[in-house]
Amino acid sequence: xxxxxxxxxxxxxxxxxxxAMQQAGxxxxxxxxxxxxxxxxxxxxxxxxxxxxxxxxxxxxxxxxIKHYCxxxxxxxxxxxxxxxxxxxxxxPLFICKEGVxxxxxxxxxxxxxxxxxxxxxxxxxAREANLPVQIHTPHRDKKAGTIRSMxxxxxxxxxxxxxxxxxxxxxxxxxxxxxxxWAAFTIYPNTKMGNxxxxxxxxxxxxxxxxxNSAADWGISDPLAVPKTAALMLERGISIDDxxxxxxxNALDSFGQSGQMKESDWLDNTTVDQSEKxxxxxxxRGGQTPTIGELKTNPLFESNIIR
Length: 308
Ligand SMILES: [Zn+2]
What we know:
Layout: E1 3-5, H1 15-23, E2 26-32, H2 43-54, H3 56-62, E3 67-72, H4 82-96, E4 101-108, H5 114-130, E5 134-137, H6 143-156, E6 164-167, H7 174-179, E7 183-187, H8 196-206, E8 211-214, H9 226-236, H10 241-256, H11 265-268, E9 272-274, E10 293-295, H12 302-306
Parallel strand pairs: 1-2, 2-3, 3-4, 4-5, 5-6, 6-7, 7-8
Antiparallel strand pairs: 9-10
Bound molecules: zinc ion.
């Protein structure tokens, strides 16, 4: 079984994570632009970060047989630094049209301030004009009201709900998001909030139409194998292979594929790695290490091992 994780912050993760993800069957990932745990103070920090998402990080993923895509945007937390946010807005049009950029994201509300609202709206217009999908981060506090507001504002700005992926849903928000025709993405947080047990129940109740599973793994306590682990649990709990395939692979491809930047052939036609390659004259190898060259195998024992 193949998987796509459409929300994972790999710049914060290790090469061990990449190797484990490949072994578990993850073939493609989407890395949304977000904040770094502490606020940036200069425009150049945004520029270099966006450049790394379409440059070094994509190369690093390729060295482990994983196709890397990203969404580019100004996150809600840093929208509150208005002087810097203004400068970032001028930068975004230069990056959203780059190869491998599958949407504007992750954008939306955190504390639901006036500044967050302003830059969320400006970026919705940017996405609509560029005909790109939008990846919405919904607030962790006041989740339900914040999610409804995010959708109301997207509709007000004439976004097609079919172009909008609403992320970090839970049992309280899923019905509204699906009823309005948006994509409903769920982040599996280890031990808290949305665990994979709860995800199984959601798919049992709501089916697989427009539902997407992701890990949102980042610099915090998180699990880069959340998508394949949830798939394994779904299989164990009697959810059909077809439904698992949709929520852990196909729906991510169908939604973000609307960008024209992400096709199944990107990974199906390209199954070998060459770790002797370099980018910016830089390699993932350290002195004396032997590059892997050729086809990488997935671990056939994964499904039976991972759920124990
Ligand atoms: Zn995120």
